[in-house]
Amino acid sequence: MTFWTRTFGIAAVFLAGIAPLHAADDELNALVWCDHSDPALLDPFEEEHGVTVNIKEYEGTGAALALLEQSQPGDWDVFVVDGVDVPRIVEAGYLAPLDREGLPLDDIFPGIRDSEIHEIGGELYAVPEKFGYNTISYNDAKVNAGDMRDIAVLWSDAYSGRIAIYDYYIPLINLVAIGLGLREDGITADELPAIREHLLKMKERSAMVGDVVSVQTALATGDVDIIAGGGEWATAVLMAEDPNMEWVNPDQGGVRWSQSIGVFSDAGNPELARKFVEYVLGPEGQARLATSSCYWAMPSNSKAALTDEEKTVLRWDEQETFIANSWPYFIPDPELDAMFLDIWTEMLQH
Amino acid sequence: MNRRGLAGWFLLAPAFLWLAAFFVVPFAVMALYSVWRREGTQLVREASLANYEAFLSKSYFLDALFNSLEITAVTVVLSVLFAYPLAYILAFLVPRRWQRLGLVLAILPFWTSYLVRSYSWLLVLSENGVISQTLVTLGLLSETMSFANSNGATILGFVHFFTMLLALTIYANLVQISPNYRRAAEDLGASRLQSFIHVVLPLSLPGVMIGAFITFVLAIGDYITPQILGGNRELVMPQAILLQVQRRADFPMASAMSLVLMLVVSAVFLASARWLKMDRV
Question: What is this model's ipTM?
Fold first, then answer.
């Protein structure tokens, strides 16, 4: 091999590595949350269709938007996104309308469909695929379970120094607002001083503020006994080793999150993308997604093929009550969002 | 320009291209973004200093900068204090044939993932971790307590990593110092301590300063260790920067804050430039 052959070979490999994703018939490029990277979810689809699913995980819609701004048309096929962000994603032109035919829309839990955010101008753009709660997780052996049914426990002195706060300002501000009885018609700028005051109180009584893994680790290692903003996603994977790991929807209610799946408007492989959406929303795909190794949460499809044990961990039988007694994320407009982030940053620095 | 001059430019071209592609252009883009602003989902491409004004007007951003400087300064000082004796022992007290093995053993723990190492420290420092349990067993603590989720834990994680990095740069400097200098000093009546203070230490300062500067740059820009071990008790600059992009995708504000951080690093570089002699390491 000559010097130049070798040089061009190396350059070709390098350029192939940095070149944009390209649309091949047997490949699907999906921009997703971490629960979609579980081989238990992907392998059956790949084997059935003889394709490869390329996964790119992201955290936070802002990160996804940054990725999309740097991508070429056709780079991405499937998008999993925070349900409440679907309208702004549609507004930006990223999602294609979905044909309702063949999608199990009637099997989705009532109250989870959220038609107002998934259907815009009469067209369906995304479908909720998984949901859960930002409420209170706790170690049943260390706290009084009855105390956990009141959100005010998070800023009382009863468990000072034993609380971890989940580091995401939208659900936590929502949770505080619910605890203060301010959430009925959304949150306004006038209510932020009261919310700020209680966020600061909560911080003073907390041991840490952390991401998913950090707050889970803190609860599992005994550093804290309570996760503010926790839920089934935080404790379900810990229950196998410690059955004392619990979560509850407080009497005032909790915050309900959901993630949605859609197909990109400029998907390179729209047919395969559609098949993937149908697979994920089907009973088998829903069961695998709900029990993904990254985090567990409720499947949106009420006919998900979960075992009785899995349903127990997810509190399947209480979902009707939980859904009724919980609010979807209130998403502020950009100006209010900036105010949310202001008081959250102040709380972190407090 | 003669052929020799052209050949020189041709040979330098790859370095210029590399610098342009991976530093000048990204830096220019970041500087440009920093004077734009985000309004809702729109990027407003009008030059203004609004992001810099916002940074200077909000106390929690300034606190984040101060926290970063404080944690980094303590990290650098502690790392130097631990690394210097280690490098000195390796360079002067360990027989030549064992030095390489000593260096490999010293850096062996760092062949693991930085992320995994940080989470390992979290387990060690937790309430039920080995430190807390040992102190209770020895009777030094009446009950278990957590050492994690604090600035102290962040500094510990940093010092664990950077001590080895610094030891390598200081060692590389120490082994270049001819033993004849020390012998000459001792022949002239200097004690071992005096020959260290007046001969070895001044000659090894370039290695110390370069290692300290690299430690400063890496520590002040690190997000992982403060995020995992600090428990968000107090924000540092990389955390405050990431808050701007995670959900809001406010890259203009994040760019302005990154440039402020870069200015601080540049100021430290200029202040220590007279000691930063790369050819001595």
Answer: 0.76
- Orientation angle between helical segments B251-272 and B59-88, nearest 10 degrees: 40
**What burial class does residue A44 get, using C-beta atoms within 10 Å of its C-beta: 0-12 exposed, 13-18 middle, 19+ buried?**
middle
Q: Which among A169, A172, A214 is the top mutation candidate for probing chain B, defined by the most B β-carbons within 10 Å of its own β-carbon?
A: A214
Which residue reads 């949310």 in tokens? A340
* Inter-chain touch A223–B149, beta carbons under 8 Å: yes
Compare all CA atoms of chain A with the CA of B55 and give the residue at the minimum distance: A342
- Residue A99's φ and ψ, nearest 5 degrees, are -75, 125
* Contact call for A60 and B227, based on CB within 8 A: no
User: Which residues from B are below 8 Å from A when comparing CB atoms?
Assistant: 39-41, 58-61, 63-64, 119, 122-123, 126-129, 144, 146, 148-149, 227-228, 231-235, 239-240, 243-251
- CATH code 3.40.190.10 for A24-131+257-320: yes
Q: How far B262 CA lies from chain A's nearest CA (Å)?
A: 22
> What are the C-alpha distances in Å from A58 to residues A55, A103, A263, B34?
10, 26, 17, 24
Which fold would CATH assign to domain A132-256+326-349?
Answer: D-Maltodextrin-Binding Protein; domain 2 (3.40.190)
Q: For residue B58, which residues of chain A lie inside 8 Å, CB to CB?
A: 342, 345
CA distance B57 to chain A (A): 12
For residue A11, pLDDT over 60 is answered with: no
Q: Tell which phi-psi region holds residue B103, choosing left (phi > 0), alpha (psi between -120 and 50) or beta.
A: alpha
One-letter identity of residue B190: A
Residue of A nearest to B38 (CA): A334
- Domain chopping of chain A, boundaries: 24-131+257-320, 132-256+326-349
Residue B280 has pLDDT above 60, yes or no: no
* pLDDT(A21) > 70: no
Ordered by where they begin, the domains of chain B are 58-280 (1.10.3720.10)
Dist. CA B122–CA A216, nearest whole Å: 12
Of B127, B234, B251, the CB nearest to A222: B127
The whole-number pLDDT of residue A70 equals 84
* Tens digit of each residue's pLDDT (9 = 90 or more) over B165-214: 899 999 999 999 998 998 899 899 889 899 999 999 999 998 899 999 99
Q: What is the pLDDT of residue A20?
A: 43
**CA angle centred on A270, ends A265 and A276, rounded to 5°:** 115
- B210-239 tens-digit pLDDT: 999 999 999 999 999 999 999 888 899 999
Chain A residues with CB inside 8 Å of B129's CB? Answer: 221
- Work out the minimum CA distance from A38 to partner chain B, whole angstroms: 20
For residue range A75-120, list pLDDT tens digits in order: 999 999 999 889 989 998 999 999 999 999 999 998 888 778 899 9
Alpha-carbon distance of A194 to A172, in angstroms, equals 14
> Do A24-131+257-320 and A132-256+326-349 fold alike per CATH?
yes
pLDDT in tens, A255-306: 999 999 999 999 999 999 999 999 999 999 999 999 998 889 999 999 999 9
* Chain B: residue whose CA lies nearest to A204: B233
